Each structure stands twice: as structure tokens, then as C-alpha cells.
Amino acid sequence: MKNKKQSRVKIVLPVLFTFGASLLFFQADAQADSSQSADANAQVVATTDANTQNNNYQSLNLSTSQNQSVASAQVYTQSAVAANQNNNSSTNKDGAVSLSDSTIQAAANKPVVETNPGYSTNQYNVTAQPVNAANGGSGAASLNTAGLTAAQKAFLDSIHDGAISTWKQYGVLPSLTAAQAIIESGWGQSSLASQYHNLFGIKGSYNGHSVTLPTREVYGGQSVIINDSFRAYDNNSQSVQDHGYFLVANSRYHNLLWKTNYRDVTYLIRADGYATDPSYTTTLNSVIERYGLTAWDQEAFDVNTGYIDDLSVRGNQLHIAGWHAANSYNSNMHHFIILLDGNGHELYRTEVAGVYRPDVQNLYSNADIAGWGGFDITIPYTNNFAGQNIQVVSRYTYDGNGEINGGKDLYFNPVSLNANAGFLDNMSLDAKTGNLNISGWHAADASLNKNYHYIIIYDGSKQTELGRYLVKNSTRNDVANVYPGIYNAAESGFSLKLKFNQALAGDQIQIISRYSSSKDGNSDYVDYWFAPKTFTANEACLDNYSIQGDSLNVSGWHAADQSVGKKYHYVIVYDATKHQEITRRLVPSSSRGDVERAYSNVYGSDNSGFSINIPLTSAMTNGDQIQIISRYSDSQNGEGNYVDYWFAPKTFTANKAYLDNFAIKGQQVQIAGWHAADQSVGRPYHYVILFDATTGREVKRQLVQAIARPDVAKVNGDVYNAGQSGFNLTMTVDSSLSGHNLQAISRYSDSKSGEGHYIDYWFKPVNVTIK
Q1: Is 3.40.710 the CATH number for 655-767?
Q2: Please, are residues 391 and 337 in contact by the beta-carbon 8 Å criterion?
Q3: Where, residue-wise, is CATH 2.60.40 in the chain?
Q4: pLDDT tier, 7 (very low <50, low <70, confident <90, very high otherwise)
Q5: For residues 617 and 21, which has the higher predicted lDDT (pLDDT)?
Q6: Is the domain 306-415 a CATH 1.10.150 member?
């Protein structure tokens, strides 16, 4: 069958499937970022933000060609298939599958590729406009618009649809409507037209709206000016519509309705008394001929248009529904639907019975066939159609075999039968089982006769496949309800449990759903690439970080996706001021059901707790910012590969004291109270010094023995040595100090003399009288 190439316009449908399976391997130098090592050279982050050591990555960019999704995927799959073919046999007791060790090692040795990963977007299109329609679009392009201004062209565009519509509804010739609008309104620029949208100078009122204006009339050969009422409209469309109705409502104009020769119509409208100007007919003819307004007449007469409402796969059937309205038709003709492929080769034809379409009949009531031009057929969906760009041709013909013989052909834009849609309902970690739970759906027209459904785990950061697993499809009626036109939508569900592995942590991990006719999944397939996800969750909280007695108590929890495979959990005490590690302790992890409930999708959250008492040292209480780091490492010494969480730093500089008694009895001063200070760590010599604040000189000092103060420990338990902070002593002083302000100073020193490094507490001076 011949294709009408002269009138056929090739329309390329939008390619919604933005990503193919073709991979471009980029050679690039890449290395993991080093972490904040707990040593003198580390960069301190004094916040609660997580800072991880390795597994930092750059994103991956993949090819977006639609056609490469089938042709080029073997770039990576061939190299990975040997290592992954047996993955399905590696199944845990809970039904979870595991990645193979060889694939993990191969991926670990690959560099990070600095590019963004691509992913599929749902591709689903089931409707089409006609290509070679007549009376199906704007006819303004067929006019002679040479020399017209932009405003004049816009004016023609504004009245085009109304002019065509009044022919279909009332039988008013479109060229007459257009010419009258031009003449009567001065191309829409007259005050009557520009202000009141009255394009035809029709007098009277419209829906009660009118305006009185002066107008020139010819009576008895004399031109006179009179005031008269003219109809006022809200817009030009109302004016065009009312013009058609005006001619129908006035019986004197009935003789010009449905006439197709513009010269007959322009003569009759003047003769019927529409205008008093004797040259009105000549003027109308001149405008029609100058601007080629008969193009609108031909457009109105030559009806050949339609629409494809649906061209989609329904189960195992191809459903085609739409309509074709045409003037070149009579009841002896046959109606054929013909399907062509993207190259114009015929794939199928069948004669169809008319399906009545009242909506089409109302729109094209004057076409020879309109309402009964509807069609709705289903045919077997086979490999001939799968993945093809299908072009529908609707043909009216006298030939019983559907060859051209009279009538009209209508070509529709091609519809691609490669609908490919999917959605990942879940891709999350189960903290309790350590499984990566994967579930979703994937429906594709091209999956016909591709009976092997694989879920492929792909590392987008390393551009390598980690594993593939054959899955059984499950029923998804919800998908079929939303996408009824995609093959196998009702059986498109899938689910997989994958044992979480360190190869999955930190990189951009993508799920690929693949239907293949090959048992190994390496040929004749259709893919859907889901958006990547990076498992880098790193959550933690310190429940307690304080001094308890002579220890630093650190307790809380830390859960991190990248802790998988890192069985050594360290708590590191770090001097953020000096940028150096103070000490580290290996801690056992404890169960934290509360954390698991709040962070069920973070690896290890169920067993993320820790609590440790670290002996205090002067390095922790010297006034520097002291920071706690929680670290999971694969090395027994806490180095190697690790993931850290740096908690906010804290300064241990509490210095609290109280004088219970400061009394003078004769020449004796009795002093009692308590003094607890974080910075007294490593300062075992406790002195009470009597200071003459009047003269600014020390009077004397006395080494004191610590007295237990459980009352102080109860209130100030987070201050070092609060439980042994008491003192009670008596000093003899000279009577010459009478009337002076004496001041007690409590001092902890690392020197036996009370000098060296010390921390003081100065009590308030007291004016004394010594007898």
C-alpha cells in the first residue's frame, strides 16, 4: 500500500525512557577521601555531624540512549555473569540472597567514577493526533498574508475557529464571515470593535448590552450620520458566534446559508439588506480574493480528521480505539484500520464496524461520516508489534480488501509500543536482620516472551554489577489499574531480600529490573534502571558524657550503614584544641531497641549501644575542648577502614566550692568547706591558703586532708572529686591583722609546695577582728 508521503508529517514522540543499559567506562584517577583520623593531623569537626573515613564517592553518568538499552548492556554484564550466575544458590535461612565474594573483591578494587548515574523514567503514551488532517487545525497558514502586519495576522487567527464553527453550525460561509469582520471592524481597530468587540456592526443589544454611537448611513443616495445602538460583546468570539446566529435568526438571509460559492453569498447579503452601501458586494469580493479567504471555505468543506484515543497492550491483546470523520464517504464504502511499523511497512489490516461517537457527531455534524466513524478493536499482541512504533491508518474505500479506491486515508502519528514503567516501593535496610529489602514493580511492552525476570544489583559509583537474581513476578492489580495499557502490568511485581554487605555501603547502588528471553539475562532484554540510593546513614547520640567520680563516663549509641563488616567498635577521646588523640577504648555493643524502632532502616541500629568509664587524666581536664569519637573499624587496632561519628566537644573546667565556716576565735581562724574542680585531676596536694586581701600578701598556707562529702557528690556528681572535696582546719594568726580583709583560697597543686601547676578557688574576703 502506498504511503502519502507528500502529506505525511513525521512526528517524533517524546522519549521518556531517558536511560539505557549501555555503560561508558571512564578511566579516571580516584581515591577515597581520608577520614578525620584521631591523631595530631586530623581535621576537627566540633559538631554532631557525621564524618566518614572512606567510601566517599563521586556520582556516575551513564548513557541515556533508548536504543542502547538492548544493544549495549553486555559491556558490563558479560564480565560479571560468571561470578554471579550462582548467586541464587547462596541463600540464607531467612530467604535472603548474598553477594559473591569474588564480585565484592572485584568491585572493591575498582576506582570511583566521577560522573552522575542515569535512571529510567516512565514511558507511556497511548494517544495520537492525525498527521494529514483536513479541517483539523488552524487554516491561517493557507491564507495570503503577504504584507499584513502582525496585528492583522493576529486578528485573523482570533476569528478563524469561529468562522469555521459558524459554517458547521449555521452554514455561513467562512470567507464571508472573515471579509465582513475585516471590513466592518477595520481589522479589529475600530472603536466599536476594539472597545466593544462588535466586529460586524450589528445593531441592537446582546444579552442586554449595547452602546450608542454615531454611524454613517446612505438614504436615497445621500450619506448621513445618525446615532444608533450597537451590540456590545465580552470578546471577539461572542461577536463571530452572534453574527452566524443573526443571519440564521433573520429569515431574509436564509437564501445565503450553506452556499459554497463566495460570489453568490456576497451578492445575496447585500441584496438581502445587510448593508446600504451599493458597493458592499464589490468590497467583500475584493477582500476575499486579495487575502485568499476561500482557503477557510475549503478547510470547512474538506473534513478528514480524527484521533487515536488508545493504542495500548491490554493483557495479550493490542487495543486500538479512535475515530475518523470525513466528507469523502458514502454508505457503500468499507472502513479499514491498517497498522504500519516505523518504516512504513504494513503489519496488519482489518475491516472494522462503526462504533457510534455522539461527541464526534456533534463536532462534525456536516461531515459525510462522523459519529459512525468511531472504531474500537482488539487484535492479538505478538512479537510483530512489541517494541515497535505503530502508525495507524484509517481508510474509507470501495475496495473490499482495503486497497485505495475512493474515500480518504487518515494517517495518525506513530505510537511507540515500548511502554516501560516501574516503581521501587522499597529499598531499605532491616537493621535487625541486616537484609536489604527490595520490592517494586516493572511493566514493559517489550517484555513479551521474555520469561526470565532478573533483579540486578549495580554499583553506580564503580560502574560494576554486584549480582543478579532471578525473581518470580507477583500480582499487582494496582499497577494494572493505573497502567492498563502496558503488557503484563497486572503481573509486574517483584521482591528480593539481599544480605547487606560492605560493598553496598557508601557507593551509589542501583536496582535494575530486567526481562530477558535468555536464561543468563545477557541478550534480548528490556531494562528499567531505578534511581540510585546511597547507604551512608550515620546516626548517633550521646546519652551521657560527664565526669563520674574519677572516671569519664561516655554512653550512647551509634548506628551506621558503613559499619557493616567493621566489627571493632572504639570510643576515642580526642583533644580538639590540640588536634590529638588522648586515648581509645574498645567497647562491646549493646542492644538498643529504642534506637532500632526510631532508625529501623539504619544498619546495626538494634545493637548500637555503648557505655564505658574511662579513667580521668589531666589531659582531659586541662581546659581544652575534648571530643568523643565513635568508630567502627575492620582493624583490631581501630585503624584500617572505618566509619566515625564525631560528637560535639565539651570543656571540663567545672570549679565549684563553698565555705561552711570562717570564724575568728582569739588568734585562731577556723576554716571549713569544700572545693571540687575538674582540673584538680593529677594535682594531689590540697592547700588552704590564708590571704591578706588588704595588703595583697599571703599570710600562711596549710596542706589539708580530704574529707568525704557525700552531700556535695549528690549535688555535683559530674565534678571531679566532689565526693572527697571537704576540708576543715585551724590557723593561728597575729593580732596585727585585726581590721584586715582576710580571704581563704582552696588550691589543688601538682607540687608538694603548692606551687607548680594548680587550680584555685578564691572565697569572698572577710573583715576580721583579732583580740
Answers
A1: no
A2: no
A3: 61-118+419-534, 306-415, 538-651, 655-767
A4: very low
A5: 617
A6: no
